[in-house]
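User: Modeling request: complex.
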Amino acid sequence: MSAGAGTGFAYRDGALHAEDVALASVAARCGTPCYVYSKAALTAAYRGFAAAFASRRHLICYAVKANPNLAILNVFARLGAGFDIVSGGELARVIAAGGDPRKVVFSGVGKTVAEIREALTAEILCFNVESVAELLRIDRIAGELGRIAPVSLRVNPDVDAKTHPYIATGLKDNKFGVAYGDALAWYRRARELKNLRIEGIDCHIGSQLTDVAPFAAAVERVIALVEALNAEGITLSHIDVGGGLGIPYRAEERADGIAEYAAAILNGSANRRETFLFEPGRYLTGNAGVLLTRVEYLKRGGERNFAVVDAAMNDLMRPALYDAWHDIVPLHEHAGTLESWEIVGPVCESGDFIGRDRRLALQEGDVLAIRSAGAYGMSMSSNYNTRPRAAEVMIDGANVHVIRKREHVAELFANETIPA
Ligand code: LLP
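Assistant: Request completed. Predicted assembly structure:
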């Protein structure tokens, strides 16, 4: 089963559905903008990932940052997932969603004292340590709490992930991880620290990789390091290869999928006894969600035609931030003259576009589905322009569950005060 652009969403009798529910009915009932996720698509993506690694002891730690809604975390928790977190807030979400903290790995370059304490108290599986200073801090806090902290070092394999520079993380000039050449020395140092237990090794080279060759290169470098550690008597329970497997964002796009990814990793690591950890985010949720938006105004003329829709860069930031492409499709396949449209939001910035030069037959009031919006959509949204954040809905067969209510304007300034 692939997590390709089609899973969970399809036209039936000319109307776009999520599973058994017409998206037009969701827009009518829940309003727009509205994120809609397919539980079947989430489940299929997770099961496909797990099946690809069935031959190897492994744990899938869903990267919470991709989409942290409690209902989504709960779907994965029930399927047996662990979680990759980057803050105390994400740990709290995992616990609130029924996730098991003992399957949690904690990544990120800036873990605070309070966050480290919370994670130790919750007995997480492992800290993915990103610097020497952090290693010393975790050792000290564990000592104060009378606990032993499980750690991996995040090594920087220095491979080029060939992705957008903002989301490439495995190069030696990135802020992430410990330099490859320094890793052995830092494992030796970690071994001396009394309040740490060396649990594994970790890397993450970047996000939205649609060619798996860099993963194979990274795994090769990491395994060479594991062998060097073994030679010094340092054994590991797990090897964490991070996340980053990309998805197709265009219906016609070709991207390496889970089969190629698994082959790249398994071929390079035959005979390893360690458990393999994965931290996929986008692969599990990206194509399991769409963002519904309504056309407010059509502005024809001048150089370009603009369709002003009610979703904006505050709802889906990826086009403005990365120049990312999301397919935009109508809810009803109807006849009409296709014209080129700039699909833009109401925010007061020229960067506030969702799609450029899209050929669509549009009328005011139409609802559009912005595809591949399940990952880094709602999670990167903001209240810019004092816009309440969108509602979120999960479809399960014929059932429609509102999993996050639309925000109200009054909530947006409820924490603000005017000095007397
Ligand atoms: N593990 C670590 C340590 C990470 O930093 C990330 C993502 C992941 C796992 C999950 O990566 P994924 O499997 O989702 O590619 N906002 C950007 C993506 C930023 C990714 C940051 N780190 C976007 O919208 O494309």
